[in-house]
């Protein structure tokens, strides 16, 4: 029993670091991991949303200190996302009742992760908005961004940040760090209403989520701190690669190779942590020598 507690706390910690670093809530990694562990899709979604509440809250406070949050935009995205969660919830239960959720939800993950991985790695950069006042067309883009993020959040049990961050960068011209901080605040609204909606219909054992959050709170703070130590292009590259490898691991589950999919994902995440640690060490050496 103690080993299970330690496992979930460690899982929450490691995913929390990536959550704070990339501003993506952590759900887009946690839900596939839970699915690979053969957790029921709706249960995995509900646990993931609860976890994302904790990591988003922790990461948001860290980014507030670094002034990476654009409040007005975050509220627009959050409110439109909350409305979209209520449209997605009945759709998920429809899939569950007809036995389609085991195939549709993983497939949706693969398609979305592949697309956003491609958009971050290969699409041309857009000009930074540099904090200019929101124009009417920009508000429409923000509303659409929130609606897409909210719908996908409830469909897949994610914060929506893994969609909101690249959309803010590619469509609204956000600076990557501003996109991350703003995403975390808007995601907090989205996942809170999403979790409540699921929990009322399908209650879960809250102890699992509590253990994950316990590790995730510390991890999100550490990850948010590290964003200030990396170049923007480097962060986009790492996030794009993480999307692709997560998509590959979920694809392995669809064809019956859950263990292989988990191994692939864990190996890449391990290499990602090594890369992050190496970059931090290199930068500290440069600072000391200068």
UniProtKB/TrEMBL annotation:
GO CC term (a single one): plasma membrane
Pfam families (alphabetical): TauE
Membrane topology: Multi-pass membrane protein
InterPro entries, per database record: TM_pro_TauE-like (IPR002781), TSUP/Inactive_protease-like (IPR051598)
Compartmental location: Cell membrane; Membrane
Bilayer-crossing regions: 7-30, 42-62, 74-92, 104-122, 181-200, 206-225, 237-256
Source superkingdom: Bacteria
Keyword annotations from UniProtKB, A to Z: Cell membrane, Membrane, Transmembrane, Transmembrane helix
Main location: membrane
Family: Belongs to the 4-toluene sulfonate uptake permease (TSUP) (TC 2.A.102) family.
Record protein name field: Probable membrane transporter protein
Annotated source species: Metabacillus idriensis
Organism phylogeny: Bacteria, Bacillati, Bacillota, Bacilli, Bacillales
């Amino acid at each position: 029993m103690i080993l299970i507690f330690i496992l979930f706390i460690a899982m929450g910690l490691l995913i929390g670091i990536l959550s704070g670093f990339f501003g993506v809530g952590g759900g887009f990694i946690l839900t596939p991991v839970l699915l690979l562990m053969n957790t029921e899709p709706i249960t995995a979604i509900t646990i993931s949303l609860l976890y994302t509440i904790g990591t988003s809250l922790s990461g948001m406070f860290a980014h507030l200190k670094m002034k990476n949050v654009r409040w007005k935009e975050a509220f627009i995205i959050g409110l439109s996302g909350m409305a979209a969660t209520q449209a997605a919830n009945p759709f998920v239960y429809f899939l569950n009742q007809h036995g389609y959720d085991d195939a549709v939800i993983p497939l949706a993950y693969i398609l979305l992760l592949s697309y956003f991985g491609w958009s971050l790695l290969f699409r041309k950069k857009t000009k930074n908005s540099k904090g200019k006042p929101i124009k009417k067309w920009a508000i429409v883009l923000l509303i659409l961004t929130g609606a897409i993020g909210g719908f996908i959040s409830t469909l897949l049990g994610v914060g929506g940040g893994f969609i909101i961050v690249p959309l803010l960068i590619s469509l609204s011209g956000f600076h990557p760090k501003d996109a991350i901080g703003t995403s975390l605040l808007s995601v907090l609204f989205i996942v809170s209403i999403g979790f409540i909606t699921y929990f009322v219909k399908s209650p879960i054992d809250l102890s699992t989520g509590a253990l994950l959050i316990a590790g995730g709170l510390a991890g999100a703070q550490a990850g948010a701190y590290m964003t200030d130590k990396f170049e923007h292009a480097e962060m986009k590259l790492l996030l794009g690669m993480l999307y692709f490898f997560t998509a590959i691991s979920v694809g392995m589950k669809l064809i019956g190779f859950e263990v292989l999919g988990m191994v692939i994902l864990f190996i890449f995440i391990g290499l990602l942590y090594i890369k992050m640690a190496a970059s931090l060490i290199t930068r500290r050496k440069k600072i000391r020598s200068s």
